[in-house]
Amino acid sequence: MKKILSLLSILILFITFINPEISEAETTKKSYLISFNNDINEKLIHKHGGNIKKKYKFIPVVSANLTDKAVQALSKNPNISYIEKDAQVHAMGQEIGWGIPHINADDVNQLGGTGNGVKIGVMDTGIDYTHEDLKVVGGETFIEGTSDYMDDNGHGSHVAGIISALNNNIGMLGVASEADLYAIKVLNQNGDGNYSDVIAGIEWAILNNINIINMSFGSNSESLALQNALDKAYNGGTLIVSSAGNNGYSKKGSITYPAKYSSVISVGAVNQNNYKAEFSSVGKELELVAPGVQINSTVPGGYAIYDGTSMAAPYVSSVGALLIQLKPDLSNIEIREILNKTSKPLGNSFSYGNGLIDAFNAINYVNTNERTNSNTKENKKN
User: Fold this and answer.
1) 310 catalytic, yes or no?
2) Is 155 part of the annotated catalytic residue set?
3) Residue 335: is its pLDDT beyond 80?
């Protein structure tokens, strides 16, 4: 009898030791984006033990934590369109400021182009709203554990300064110094974030009528949910700009998402001699290039020099803001077309897109066309 009890005790100890590991493996959850064919069915997610984190307003997608077993089961459900991992995005380029005259933005500034009244959403690590050279109108954080959109990294403030550092005789000057900056915090203190937070940020931008979204981050992971959200914003009139990536040259192309999507202007980086920056990604999706080497801008508590396509993207966003201010009747699609038509060709499109962004060429193109159209109408009257 004692032997039987002893064996039972050993068996119970063995099961107790093994089961927690098995149980942990079965219950480990990861973050996913689940798209429904029609209406979102929250009960279906809960039925498979899922925890819903976010429910989106404009696309039938939810962000939820699921076990591998739940993913397998839900993937077979006819009501679900697709399930994809909630991939991470990373801030592009915090390596170590001459850009304004290089793209002839100073000529447009002298014409009164300052971006006044244009709402620019900087989707990034937040913005230092206490910085003496930055004026942040508003924003929102989508990073868990943060209470506001304060920049706890530096990347977002650097991007914001390129766009709209104030014309106040201190520090530096932004391309569109009177634009309304909105901090949309989707990257954490390490410069990392998830697509689920980016999508939430895009929806916030839509709801708050943001004119331009600047995304100086990227990922090698594709996302239908992210693409759907960006398409929604673009079709609604938002100009969307993203850094092309810092993956360097590749025969197959090296541009990251979201810059690869058709609704987004993909921006590469050049140096002061208009040569492609060594780190700048290439590919058929590349649309424009802008200054991205040795760029001086604002960071929390002061200023710093960074390199990266992250620095190039805000130059394009800024020129877009100058056009929106001076030519408010233009649509986002028309502005995009003008930016491409008036850029300065630098080389093959795989490495340079349509060329270097040129603010003065862009505004001059619109003015010339307006005069031509006006003369045509006048001649018809006569």
Assistant:
1) yes
2) yes
3) yes
